[in-house]
């Protein structure tokens, strides 16, 4: 067997490839109690923490469209005949299988190779839960303790080197107040300074397209790395009717869909520590809010089958557009007041400009304006009382809008280079014109649409008419833009963005691309 494996390695076989029914070679080696084979696989890059995707023969047969009897026979012949065909093995690691077989040598080899003894399978069991001897149990308990100490030490070092605020700001433009509020709460949780009897609950308030969902997603990525498991997004507009509660937590026994489970309970069962995003929570039916209140208050949820899911370590984030108009209007008013106050300071540095644009929503505004709106929507004080932090997302400042435009233009510049081998350039006037297209009601999406409408549309039209080609350099220029070096403006003429192309053999000479002509600039010697 070892000889065959060595020959396969020479052909470039992927040691982490899966059998069509879900397991890998390392799972097979562990269940076969082949310690030497496990060591060879680990030495050649096998993942010691890979999880088996096989559940039981009936479920796999239904999922794969294969006759269950064929699934059961394949599992027995190609994996192991010592396992129950009805038991659920989804999420089992090679370490789970080594312990199930009572093989201490193979279990130790896996632990030495980096196996994580804290991983739980889909049944919520760690490898130690299957230990049959005191020596195996002792070895795994010690390994768990050591693994947690090393993991916590590394995590602490990583947090010091690269704080959460810094990570979030790499992906989210603006919203410094929101980022700091969330990061502070997560820091308290990570370091054990929080109420362990209750999960952490946030309510994100603000206009659409302003970073609420992205902040939730990046928080999940920071906490769990694996977004597929660690981030659960529930669209609450799907739960506006009373009968849709069953879709949320699962149907009770005897009802249609009982075996499928609920959209939330199913995902939380798989990963109880997830970051759960309840999008547009104000649209949910009151009965769904009642279930959420139990979830936030007790840190547990009972599904349609009567099974209780413990999720005190989860992080729940609700987003809402409630009071978004009031918040945006108040923030814009505050910015205008700050701008008027700082006129005499003649702020010239970007840091100074950004400092004048930082504003804080007052406690009085929150209590007098926002809270009554929330109480009318949710109709219960106890629901609001279980929210740890209400996080406010504010309209973008002028400097933040410039960053959003630049980020969007850089995206399209990369696309132009990658797909068409075309270089795209622009100046600050173009950025300013596009920033003027900001709509406070649609947030960053309005900037995205503005760039697509005023820039990408022109590029696509020029490409279709063969006015631009591979290898050319395109410059975006602004007409009738406000020139900071001149005192005379032409306010009656709207600012526009046009395309220019670099002349062949010239370094800095660009000519306009006329989208209303059929003449090809390449025929005129331009490049």
TrEMBL record:
Recite the UniProt keywords alphabetically. ANK repeat, ATP-binding, Nucleotide-binding
Q: Where is the AAA+ ATPase domain?
A: 198-342
Which PROSITE patterns does this entry report, sorted A to Z? Answer: ANK_REP_REGION, ANK_REPEAT
This protein's source sits in the domain of life called Eukaryota
**Where are this protein's ANK repeats?**
21-53, 90-122
One GO CC annotation: mitochondrion
Gene3D superfamilies per the record? 1.10.8.60, Ankyrin repeat-containing domain, P-loop containing nucleotide triphosphate hydrolases
Domain Clp ATPase C-terminal as annotated: residue spans = 396-486
Question: SMART domains in the record, alphabetically?
Answer: AAA (SM00382), ANK (SM00248), ClpB_D2-small (SM01086)
GO terms under biological process = cellular response to heat
Q: Which Pfam families match?
A: AAA_2, Ank, ClpB_D2-small
- Its name, as the record gives it, is Caseinolytic peptidase B-like protein
């Amino acid at each position: 067997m070892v000889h065959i494996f060595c020959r396969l390695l020479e052909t470039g076989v992927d040691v982490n490839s899966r059998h069509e029914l879900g397991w890998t070679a390392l799972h097979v080696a562990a269940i076969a109690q082949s310690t030497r084979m496990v060591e060879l696989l680990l030495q050649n890059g096998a993942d010691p923490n890979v999880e088996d995707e096989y559940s039981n023969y009936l479920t796999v047969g239904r999922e794969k469209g294969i006759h269950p009897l064929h699934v059961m026979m394949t599992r027995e012949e190609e994996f192991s005949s010592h396992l129950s065909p009805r038991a659920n093995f989804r999420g089992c690691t090679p370490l789970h299988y080594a312990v199930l077989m009572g093989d201490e040598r193979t279990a130790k080899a896996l632990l030495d190779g980096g196996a994580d003894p804290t991983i739980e399978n889909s049944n919520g069991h760690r490898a130690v839960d299957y230990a049959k001897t005191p020596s195996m149990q002792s070895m795994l308990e010690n390994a768990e303790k050591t693994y947690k100490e090393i993991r916590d030490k590394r995590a602490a070092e990583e947090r010091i080197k690269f704080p959460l605020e810094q990570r979030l700001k790499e992906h989210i433009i603006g919203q410094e107040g929101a980022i700091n509020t969330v990061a502070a709460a997560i820091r308290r949780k990570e370091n054990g300074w929080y109420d362990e009897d209750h999960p952490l609950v946030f309510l994100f308030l603000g206009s659409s397209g302003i970073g609420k969902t992205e902040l939730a997603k990046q928080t999940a990525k920071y906490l769990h790395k694996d977004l597929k498991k660690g981030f659960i997004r529930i669209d609450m507009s799907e739960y506006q009717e009373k009968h849709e509660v069953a879709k949320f937590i699962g149907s009770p026994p005897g009802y249609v869909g009982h075996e499928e489970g609920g959209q939330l309970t199913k995902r939380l069962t798989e990963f109880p520590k997830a970051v759960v995003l309840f999008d547009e929570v104000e649209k949910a039916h009151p009965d769904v809010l009642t279930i959420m209140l139990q979830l936030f208050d007790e840190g547990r949820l009972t599904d349609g089958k009567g099974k209780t899911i413990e999720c005190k370590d989860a992080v729940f984030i609700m987003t809402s557009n409630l009071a978004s108009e009031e918040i945006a209007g108040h923030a814009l008013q505050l910015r205008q007041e700050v701008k008027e106050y700082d006129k005499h300071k003649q702020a010239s540095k970007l840091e100074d400009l950004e400092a004048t644009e930082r504003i804080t929503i007052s406690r009085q505004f929150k209590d007098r304006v926002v809270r009554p709106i929330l109480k009318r929507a949710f109709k219960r004080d106890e629901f609001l009382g279980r929210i740890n932090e209400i996080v406010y997302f504010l309209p973008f400042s002028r400097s933040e809008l410039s960053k959003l435009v630049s980020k969007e233009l850089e995206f399209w510049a990369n696309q132009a280079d990658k797909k068409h081998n075309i270089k795209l350039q622009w100046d600050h006037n173009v950025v300013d014109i596009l920033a003027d297209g900001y709509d406070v009601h649609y947030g960053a999406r309005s900037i995205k649409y503005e760039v697509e409408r005023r820039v990408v549309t022109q590029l696509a039209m020029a490409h279709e008419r063969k006015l631009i080609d591979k290898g050319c350099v395109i410059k975006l220029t602004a007409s009738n833009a406000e020139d900071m070096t001149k005192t005379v403006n032409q306010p009656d003429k709207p600012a526009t963005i046009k395309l220019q192309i670099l002349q062949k053999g010239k370094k800095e000479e660009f000519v306009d691309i006329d989208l209303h002509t059929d003449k090809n600039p390449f025929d005129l010697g331009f490049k």
